[in-house]
Amino acid sequence: MSRDPLNRQRSRLVFGVFIIVVGLFALLDNLHVFDSRLVQPFWPLVFVAMGALRLSQNDGHAKHYIFGVALMVVGTGMTLNNLGLIHFQWRDLWPVALILVGLNVLTRGFTRGTDGQPLPRPRPGQRDERFEHGTSIDASAMMSGIVLKNDSQEFTGGEINAVMGAVEIDLRQAAIATEAVLHLSVIMGGVEIRVPREWSVSVNGTPMLGGIEDKTAPPMAPGKRLIIEGSVIMGGVEITN
């Protein structure tokens, strides 16, 4: 099931304020009123804010809790590293990826898919591949990969999260009544969405140091529409047929 509208508004608020603040400091720097280099070390705090927002939603999903905590840890670590209070290189932190993947496998063993059936555990070294039939999707990839196919004939949308991970969504066998909404949260990750040729696509997402590219062919008779919403930070989203 997709997120509550209030939660989506909060996400937009955090991301919108961040963009406004960045633009304001850039403007003041260009006008030689303020040296933006003084605040550059603090830009990863946006990850902390997004993680705290995810925790405040309290939707009961363990993987969303882990997702929020990971965002806060990454943002805090990057900020402290920028300030010189701690020192690390990304290659030193590769064991963290194993820890997160392990936690993801454990929590997935105690959760169920949108069709009410237990989600299968991926084997080590393989991508998580799912074939679902529920009316909505919920896919989260953190330093991992997910391939999800959905053939619901009453598809309504869902949620996709990718942090330094890859998500592939195949909806070519699905159908919608008139409109469906997918909410994205992509940070240093990639998302590929395949849709039927009779669907039109409307992109309302906000990319920052990233992009959302719609490569679908316009349908001959528009009537069914997929709306893409959310934020993309240093990542990419591609929609194809």
Description:
Helices cover 31% and strands 29% of the residues. The radius of gyration is 19 Å and the shape is globular. The longest helix has 26 residues, at 5-30. It is of the alpha/beta class. The chain has helices spanning 5-30, 45-57, 62-82, 94-108; strands spanning 128-132, 136-142, 145-150, 157-163, 166-170, 179-187, 190-194, 199-203, 206-208, 211-214, 224-233, 236-240. Helix 1 runs antiparallel to helix 2 (45-57) and helix 3 runs antiparallel to helix 4 (94-108). The protein is built from four helices and twelve strands; from the N terminus they run H-H-H-H-E-E-E-E-E-E-E-E-E-E-E-E. The protein has one domain. Strands 1-3-5-7-12-10 form a six-stranded parallel beta sheet, with no helix packed on it. Strands 2, 4, 6, 8, 9 and 11 form a six-stranded parallel beta sheet that branches. The model is unreliable at 109-126 (pLDDT under 50). The relative contact order is 0.11. Residues 14-109 form the LiaF transmembrane domain. Residues 148-213 form the Cell wall-active antibiotics response LiaF-like C-terminal domain. Keywords: Membrane, Transmembrane, Transmembrane helix.
